Amino acid sequence: LQQQAEQACRQLVRTQEEHEHLLQAAVEQAEELEQSLRSAEAVLAERVAQLRDAQAQLSKNKLLIEELRGENRRFAMALQAAELKQKSMEEKNQLLEEQASALKQLIGKITPASLSG
């Protein structure tokens, strides 16, 4: 009976040691998982910060694009006004050239008449 008790006690000790090893392995695995989780959280936080920066830059770029569009519209209107003014000046120039030609013809007609008179 005593031998059976000692054998049972040794078996119990071995079982207890196995359980302690399993528990130790489980604790180590949990610590590794916790460390992995912390690393993943750090990477995620960095990605979130990068996305926020990218979003802020995108907002700035959108505002800049809108400003450039407005400026482009103003330049287009100024160009159109300049083209209209140029066309008007060309028409006035053409009219002046026609008047100058008419005056030359008139002077040409008047001059021989006054020389012969």
From TrEMBL:
The gene is Ninl. Keywords: Coiled coil, Cytoplasm, Cytoskeleton, Phosphoprotein. Residues 5-109 form a coiled coil. It comes from Ptilonorhynchus violaceus (Satin bowerbird). It is found in: Cytoplasm, Cytoskeleton, Microtubule organizing center, Centrosome. The keyword Disulfide bond does not apply. GO terms for biological process: microtubule anchoring at centrosome. Its main location: cytoplasm. The lineage of its organism: Eukaryota, Metazoa, Chordata, Craniata, Vertebrata. This is NINL protein.
